[in-house]
Amino acid sequence: MNYNKYKLKSNVFLSEIGADYLPIVRFYQLIKFPDILHFITTRQGGFSEKPFHSFNLASHVGDREEHVFRNREQLAAALCIPAKNFIFAQQEHGTNILITNFKKDVIDNNNFTKSDKVGDAFLTDDKGICLLIFVADCVPVLFFDYRKRVIGLAHAGWKGTIGLISQKTVQLMQSHYGCSVQDIICGLGPSIGPCCYEVGEEVLDKARDSFSDDLNHLIHHEPSKNQYFFDLWQANKVQLLKCGIPEENIALANICTSCHSDLFFSNRKEKGYTGRFAAGIMLRE
Ligand SMILES: [Zn+2]
Known about the structure:
The protein is of the alpha+beta class.
């Protein structure tokens, strides 16, 4: 496949890893830190059949369990880590942030395909835990404090974004781990862009409550069709800036999943019948 058009994006690049040349996206701003592993998968290179073709990593969307399992095994092999080190949760579009622990969540974990955890963001300072978030239009937000060696990962769809999950994740990094905002690098991965994310009254009303000062920058009105588009990328970036994270520490992938549904799953574009790709981050052992 020709990935050249995606390599032109400013903050991310595509590479192929492992014996199977699995394509993944990485941030330039995070790849320079050798003590973390991070990645965003694509929909290419897996075993799942339509409409989950082919690298679906989520088991809750109706795909065959053995295909999801094989895809996860393939990802683990390409990353050179055990599949049991993947830590994920039942995502519910909320703002519950889970603090994870290597012994409790990896060594004592006997179920690698389902999770009994419920939450939409993770934090850890333990090495060897590969945090995973599954998405198909929602914004995956990666966090790394390079001084305290703390990693985080959040799932920000419209509900999580309006619930200020990015801001809450940073605040918990500060209160739980003593992180300084100057030391936190953030990456906002491929997700539905302001070009395609048309929203209705319910989202507009709630966005007004959460982002009153910034609303004009976050909602674009198309008068000819009376359509409203919500900018999830900027709505999460605004939260990070308000926490005090320097703008140069925030990297946007600027890749719209709906415009690029050949490379990523897009729930909106595929009308709800599709798979999930994953964002992941791990402190290396
Ligand atoms: Zn788009």
